[in-house]
């Protein structure tokens, strides 16, 4: 550690005042790539702990582990912030198949997060395919009643930024069951939010709106490959029968935590610059991209400040939020507590778009602030960071917006994100060490510049 | 096909003259992502044909297949250009192990391309580790003679562009054996050109310079993980013995081909704009990234022009070069024939850096030309293409430089490239469909703009 700090100091001294920023960024990137911790942390989170479904043992283990690791960094304060969360469990492995005269055709499915179960013996019924909630609403009740509504609108492949394609489809997953239930459907299948054709169902949160419990119908994601097969078979045999069973459901509430650590600011300790990701994940993979990556990158920001002996003017705080995936409980709790304590958050950066090669950031701030931030883009050019745009930030930092905080989101390359998102292959081996580390260095560089210039 | 062309034409008409370029680019990207052929071609090349080592049956099958596919596109001319190549074969699987008292420790190795074999029973000797050719040259002959020289300088992880890290290390692989042989070494092991620590040896070409055949010593790549282990064991036991055997060697010359197709220019048919990659690969994987990707992307450029009914002013020619990997025979033959026929090449674009998300291009041209090209960068912004720099182009288009051709190389994201480069895991499943297609669209867009503006 000491050697790194001395080399860094030498670099700054040699570089002179004019190029101090350049030198700082170079040292952040060098440290992340040569002596980074993010990949080892992620290895532990993914391979030793595994999935971190809200309310699960894994989620609690991740709370304990990340607190312990933050404790080792010599920060000024590390603590747990209690959050009560609802516990939802998948139960026994779900299954569905098309009944045919020559045998059954298996359909890889998984329950959507928050879904109700089927009847214990499952259901067997016809399927009606629609491409959208709007199309569903054109159907009469007798076409829908008692059937499985199959939402099969694919993500739009010609959109360059895959998050746009996701936004254009995810209403089926979130609101499909509620709307289908209103027309008396027995269940819904939703095409997985995946741009590839493969056999993996992708889970994700869904909502029944105000529907009372007894009207809540089971909802499952179906793999893109199975969606294509089911659609083709429905064209040939509109009255085909599908059998479907799942056993998921809520199991009360449990105590959980946001994990928080901070370095006190030397000049404006009362102004907080936040960096974070979410600790919970879905249960099918190990959540390495979503959002183990964002957690370890955020921890790495504070670790690098300590290792390189950078004393921030503002308080730099890392927050690992609990339950981003199904309720945003941690983020809401954090914002509520911040308001209660009258804390001032100057800036909040979220990393929750995967551990892929970073391309830049999107910002939710005013024009004046954006002009200041944009002026730093040349500093990032040697690192091939080029994307500085106004736009969304992230779900967990969102609740801070009302207090006027500048918000930002790391924007990694998005092409492969939905290959893994919420699916069983979101695993450690899908994360490249360098790409993860470059993200951490890019975030650290931005936080440094915000600290220095605001 | 027809429907696509009509939609495209409508797009251009609606867009008006001012935004014609925007509309063209949009159509190239849409077509590549929604109706591309590049991924299917690569599937065939990688999974049906497999590796395409120069002089192998696979290489000949790839010549036949790509010619056949180009024939289907309705180009103005498709032909094979004969190239004589030297045939090198790996022979029986290589092996090496450290002899220890408690048993042997296996070292994953592979012969470097062009290497000589060991003696039929292999060799058993001591190992001397160096970090560079310079360090080797400081050693006296008696330290080296009869031993295996182990070049163990890692790629520099803090360089952002991994090709720079490769350039900084590859001299060990190319010239290590020649220099070690001059000091009487028995063989060389070279640390694989890989930024990860894993068990895969990465092959690649090497040269004996002017050394006569009897002085050529066997050379092998050793996996990064085994390099770390061997180095650690040498620290503890400098006189440890390694056994090493490989059976590779040259097997004469064979006839092979460059595969060429073109669309004749409508205004300046005598001026050629070339786009290409190389058809040969190493034998350990299936060469999907290196350079199956570049081949199918180059073919896709001409296919999209045909599908979208774009009539280029200049002749647009695709060239799939033979034997980039170990001699550049195809590229040299192509340039020689071009000179003999007095052909004028206006521009030549190579894709040989993997099928990853495209970031832009590097150009080898004069300032005036570069200014024109740079002015197009805003057109590429919606596609997150931001890298327009002067610099290298590619090995296969290099020989055209002497006739004043503008040269360019596609620059995809390079972070993962050396995870796969020349190793057994350079396989189809390491290529993401969207990333490959975005590269093809980006290349097509550049070729369109060059055709229109020069």
Automatic annotation (TrEMBL), chains A, B:
Peptidase M28 domain boundaries: 258-442
Any one cellular-component term (Gene Ontology): lysosome
Pfam families on file: Peptidase_M28
Superkingdom of origin: Bacteria
GO process terms (BP): proteolysis
UniProt-listed InterPro entries: CPQ (IPR039866), Peptidase_M28 (IPR007484)
Keyword Protease: yes
GO molecular function, a single term: carboxypeptidase activity
Subcellular location per the Swiss-Prot or TrEMBL entry: Endoplasmic reticulum; Golgi apparatus; Lysosome; Secreted
Subunit structure: Homodimer. The monomeric form is inactive while the homodimer is active.
PANTHER family membership: CARBOXYPEPTIDASE Q (PTHR12053:SF3), PROTEASE FAMILY M28 PLASMA GLUTAMATE CARBOXYPEPTIDASE-RELATED (PTHR12053)
Protein name: Carboxypeptidase Q
Provenance organism: Neptunitalea chrysea
């Amino acid at each position: 550690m000491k050697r790194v700090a001395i080399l860094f100091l030498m670099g700054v001294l040699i570089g002179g005042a004019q190029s101090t920023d350049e030198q700082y960024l170079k040292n952040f990137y060098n440290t992340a790539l040569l002596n980074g911790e993010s990949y080892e942390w992620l290895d532990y989170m993914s391979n030793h702990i595994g999935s971190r479904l809200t309310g699960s043992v894994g989620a609690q283990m991740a709370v304990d582990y990340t607190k312990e690791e933050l404790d080792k960094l010599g920060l000024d304060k590390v603590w747990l912030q209690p959050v009560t969360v609802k516990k939802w469990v998948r139960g026994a492995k779900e299954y569905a198949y098309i009944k045919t005269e020559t045998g059954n055709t298996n359909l890889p499915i998984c329950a959507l997060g928050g879904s109700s179960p089927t009847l214990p013996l499952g259901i067997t019924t016809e399927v009606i395919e629609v491409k959208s909630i709007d199309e569903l609403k054109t159907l009469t009740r007798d076409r829908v009643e008692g059937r499985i509504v199959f939402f099969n609108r694919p993500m739009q492949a010609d959109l360059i930024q895959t998050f746009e394609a996701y936004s254009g489809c995810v209403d089926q997953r979130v609101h499909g069951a509620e709307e289908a239930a209103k027309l008396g459907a027995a269940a819904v299948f939703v095409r997985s939010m995946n741009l590839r054709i493969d056999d993996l169902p992708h889970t994700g949160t869904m909502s029944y709106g105000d529907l009372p419990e007894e009207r809540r119908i089971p909802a499952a994601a179906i793999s893109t490959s199975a969606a294509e097969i089911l659609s083709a078979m429905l064209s040939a045999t509109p009255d085909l029968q599908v059998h479907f069973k799942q056993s998921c459901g809520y199991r009360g509430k449990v105590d959980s935590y946001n994990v928080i650590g901070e370095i006190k600011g030397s000049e404006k300790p009362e102004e907080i610059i936040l960096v974070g990701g979410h600790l919970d994940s879905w249960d099918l993979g190990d959540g390495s991209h979503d959002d183990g990556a964002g957690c370890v990158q955020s921890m790495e920001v504070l670790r690098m400040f300590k290792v390189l002996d950078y004393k921030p003017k503002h308080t730099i705080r890392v927050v690992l939020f609990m339950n981003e995936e199904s309720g945003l409980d941690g983020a809401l709790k954090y914002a509520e507590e911040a308001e209660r304590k009258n804390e001032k958050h100057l800036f909040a950066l979220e990393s929750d778009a995967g551990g892929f090669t970073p391309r830049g950031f999107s910002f939710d701030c005013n024009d004046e602030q954006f002009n200041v931030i944009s002026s730093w883009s040349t500093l990032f050019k040697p690192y091939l960071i080029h994307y500085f745009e106004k736009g969304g930030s992230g779900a967990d930092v969102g609740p801070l917006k009302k207090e006027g905080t500048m918000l930002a989101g790391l924007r990694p390359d998005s092409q492969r994100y939905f290959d893994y998102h919420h699916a069983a292959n979101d695993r450690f081996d899908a994360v490249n060490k360098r790409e993860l580390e470059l993200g951490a260095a890019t975030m650290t560089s931005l936080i440094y510049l915000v600290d220095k210039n605001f």
